Amino acid sequence: MTFFAAVRERDRRLTKRVAAWQQPCVHRTLSAVEEAAESSKLWCGAAVVMAWTGGRRGREAAVAGLAALAFAQLVSNGVCKRLADRPRPPKEWIPHDEVEDRPDSSSFPSGHTAAAVAFTAALAPSWPQAGAVCAVPAAMVAVERVQSGAHYPSDVAAGAVIGLASAWLIRRFPPLAVRVRR
Prior knowledge:
Blueprint (H helix, E strand, L loop, with lengths): L2 H17 L4 H14 L3 H13 L1 H29 L27 H13 L4 H20 L5 H29 L1
Main location: membrane
Keywords: Cell membrane, Hydrolase, Membrane, Transmembrane, Transmembrane helix
Protein name: Phosphatase PAP2 family protein
């Protein structure tokens, strides 16, 4: 079995297993977090709270998080989704009606996950406690994307990698810009 065939088989099995979760409390919680994260509302709200209450550290964390989020969305939604025209998981794999609400765009990568991970990973060095708090809904967004049938697990993993890379680049950019000016 080739590497890609193995990934497709794991994607199929994990997608079906996670989508089959029927606990109403889990389903409602994941859906509520995803709705809050839609259009980055959750992350923008968190940035406002951090900037308002966290002083200089909060403002630095908020700016880094929002910059990484914007870069991750540009890469995932503006570039990668256009290059990788991957269809969403088949509707027959998803045993609930939430599958009807998913977007028509490419499944690869998960832009929601990229944004959530980028925001969280970029702010964590400035304010580790806020990073730990934001990691919980970020993980919930990633799980919800598979549970709802919007993405395969490999889409979510790729989104997480894009988010981590975006956070790393944003955190590294200011020191690099200062060196170039000298």
